[in-house]
Amino acid sequence: MFQQKKIYKSMENRNFTAESLLKELEDLKLFKFDEVSFTGLALNIEMLVPQYLRDDHFNLIEVQGGLAKKTYALWFHDLSLAIDIFNHFVDYTNDHFNDYLREAKQYQADTGNPPSSPEYKAYFEQGNSMYFHDVLHSVFDLSRKIDLSVEDFKEALEADGIDSSQYVLPTKKVFNTHL
Predict the structure, then answer these.
(1) What DSSP letter does each residue of 124-150 carry, written as one string?
(2) What is the DSSP annotation of 13-80?
(3) N or C, which end of the chain is more exposed by having fewer CB within 10 Å?
(4) Cα–Cα distance between 176 and 118 in angstroms, integer?
């Protein structure tokens, strides 16, 4: 059986608590993805990238006149961390997807079973026909969320008359296959 990764199994990632998300954030900061759920990755990224602050229960913090905002320094730090986590996640996903492509090519050569065969599906999909769609979608979904937050960050700096050269964000990687 092809070794599927927990982080891409979206149907198995529905249960989480504030404590589990914090634990997963610690793993994410170390770029350890094997025990992180996609929910943990997505929600933690979604907490890091926006300008607004949340409490320990992930509720937006309201202040007089609206929502509490991060300082530009904190927003820059959090957005940079999110981009760094994402870049490592892209590498992790690239490696996993290329492992699949290599193994699928070898499997087909050894067995003659095409991707549409029940044997192929049992070996690679293991009852989760959306697995490889979820693998790739997870990267593209997070990428778009980060892109939107980077645009928001730059627009906010400009609106407040702050020179954006003071806050140079890391370059976000683009996912591509190597085979």
Answers:
(1) HTTT-TTHHHHHHHHHHHHHHHHHHHH
(2) -----HHHHHHHHHHHHTT--TT--HHHHHHHHHHHSSSB-B-TTSPBPEETTEE-B--HHHHHHHHH
(3) N
(4) 28
Rounded to an integer, what distance in angstroms lies between the CA atom of residue 97 and that of residue 177? Answer: 7
- Classify residue 69 by burial, with Cβ atoms within 10 Å: 0-12, 13-18, 19+: middle
CA torsion angle 109 90 25 67 (round to 10): -140
Q: How many CA atoms lie within 13 A of 28 on its CB side?
A: 29
pTM of the model: 0.86
User: How many Å apart are CA 62 and CA 166, to the nearest integer?
Assistant: 28
